[in-house]
Amino acid sequence: MDRYLVFGHPVRHSKSPFIHTLFARQTQQALEYGLAEPVPAEFETSLRAFFAEGGKGCNVTVPFKEQAFALVDRLSPRARRAGAVNTIKLTDDGVLLGDNTDGAGLVADLKSHGVALTGSRILLLGAGGAARGCLAPLLAEGPSELVIANRTQAKAARLAEEFQDLGAIQAVAYEALQGPFDLVINSTSASLQGDLPPLSPALIHGDTAIYDMMYGATDTPFIAWAKSHGARLTMDGLGMLVEQAAEAFTVWRGLRPGTKQVLRELKRNLGIL
């Protein structure tokens, strides 16, 4: 039976084994999926041992995505752009291929909610790895403008400069933001600690789509803030989690599983439904 893992530290909370087990059952694929939690200094040794012992592929989560980027033999174009790897496949010719499915997962989830990206004005909060991973897929959809806002504006400016060849993108200080936006995406984890960016309610209106990459059994503080100011369409990152997993499964197995039923089962598992 083909073996797959998710590497992370910590990783015992991961829902990836649950998701990929359902994907395998749905598509009638013979595979098993487990967890690996090496300490950061032992990630490379653990990764190489897994593949030497017959592993076929793995997911990589915090804090190993940048390390995985440096360890693989070959990078997909989207992994190279993201500067991080969250999916590794052992190819038929014995090469470790690094990919990044995070951005594709975000775009797929937004589209599943009917969010129009082409011609839209998008605000992206945060300039870390999560933001970097989704920039190229978002810009590929042809928004009229993508604005990055971050507590450290210089970091956002460097990111905007790096991706400016892909579309209309700029970095703006929080206090200089001018709304409204059609879509606001929170890529930071700050709201989980109750720390919200200094945003004006004027940046959103009733038809603004609100997306928080974080998720929980109840509304994140960011989503609660948006709802309190009239946002009607709010989404958390649970759908992105399932969609990026489906993209990884496709990389490994060559067929794409359905996500709607798996997302419903995951919500039941988390006690959300």
Ends distance:
33 Å
- Regions with little confidence, pLDDT below 50 for 5+ residues: none
Secondary-structure element pattern, one letter each: EHEHEHEHEEHEHEHEEEHEHH
Instruction: Give the number of DSSP strands.
Output: 12
Question: What percent of residues adopt helix (DSSP H or I)?
Answer: 25-40%
Radius of gyration: 19 Å
Mean pLDDT: 95
Shape: globular
User: How are strands sequenced across the largest beta sheet?
Assistant: 2-1-3-5-6-4
Number of helices: 10
Beta-strand residue percentage: 15-25%
The SS-based structural class is: alpha/beta
Major pleated sheet: 6 strands, mixed
Kindly list the characteristics that best describe this protein:
single chain, about 270 residues, alpha/beta, six-stranded mixed β-sheet, six-stranded parallel β-sheet, 12 strands, about 40% helix
Description:
The protein is an alpha/beta fold and 273 residues long. 38% of the residues lie in helices and 18% in strands. The protein has helices at residues 16-27, 43-52, 65-71, 77-82, 102-112, 129-140, 153-162, 221-228, 238-253, 260-270, and strands spanning 2-7, 31-36, 57-60, 74-75, 87-90, 96-99, 121-125, 145-149, 169-171, 183-186, 209-212, 233-235. The chain has a six-stranded mixed beta sheet with strand order 2-1-3-5-6-4, with helices on both faces. The protein has a six-stranded parallel beta sheet with strand order 9-8-7-10-11-12. Strand 8, helix 7 (153-162) and strand 9 (169-171) form a beta-alpha-beta unit. Helix 1 packs across helix 9, helix 5 (102-112) packs across helix 6 and helix 5 crosses helix 9 (238-253). The protein is globular.
